[in-house]
Amino acid sequence: MIEVVMEHLGRALQIYSDGSHYDTMLEAKNQYFALTGQVFEEDEDYESRMSAFNDWYLLQFVSEDGCPIWNYVEENTVEDNVSKALRTVKHSIYEYVGKNFKKQHVLKDIVHNRKIVLSKRAIIPSLLKNDLFIGRVIETEGEYFTLSGLCLLPGEIKGILKKEGKRIRAFNDLKKEVEFLLLVESLKTKWIRYGHLDAKSIFVFDS
């Protein structure tokens, strides 16, 4: 089923990046990189950041015409279970815990304080145990998979992120969660641009 879900994601991206939707996509792109920091083709993480933008645009960006993925499932023939998977992707900060005894990759969702065991069929980038990243997890038929747009974070700020994630979780407010995640991504961009600075001096949050 994940193949069908990914096929729909690809089709939705093609539809909502072309024709009458092109200007809206450009508006979203300008907004996203204004919030998270500019990206350049020579950046090592260029491809992953563009993938992260595509995911955000499709799944979370809302214009006067609505959210692309919600419009897509309403305007196209999409099975109910696929529609639910597309509309309930979980955006968060994850820690890669490693593999369990069944050889499945395990993630810890820092913002929502839960463990996620990925499908045996899940393919993830070259992550090392305890790596931190901002990403999106999609569930279909009880199986979990990551989307491709991962933003790796410096490991030394794990404690800072856990503390702030707990504070954000207490609000139980999706809007605050998204604002927090985009802020963390922007601080990651700043950290890369100012690599001579200690990560803990950059990842500072106003409580």
Order of helical and strand elements? HHHHHEEEEEEHHH
The proportion of residues forming helix, as a percent range, comes to 40-55%
Number of contiguous helices: 8
In total, the number of strands is: 6
Summarize the structure in words.
- The structure is a single chain.
- This protein has 207 residues and is of the alpha+beta class.
- It has a domain at 2-87.
- The protein is 47% helix and 17% strand.
- The chain contains eight helices and six strands.
- The chain has helices at 2-15, 22-36, 46-59, 68-75, 80-87, 158-171, 174-193, 199-202; strands at 90-99, 105-109, 114-117, 132-140, 143-146, 151-153.
- Strands 1, 2, 3, 4, 5 and 6 form a six-stranded antiparallel beta sheet that branches.
- A hairpin with a 4-residue loop joins strand 2 and strand 3 (114-117).
- The mean pLDDT is 95.
Secondary-structure map:
Elements: H1 2-15, H2 22-36, H3 46-59, H4 68-75, H5 80-87, E1 90-99, E2 105-109, E3 114-117, E4 132-140, E5 143-146, E6 151-153, H6 158-171, H7 174-193, H8 199-202
Q: What labels would you give this structure?
A:
single chain; 207 residues; alpha+beta; 8 helices
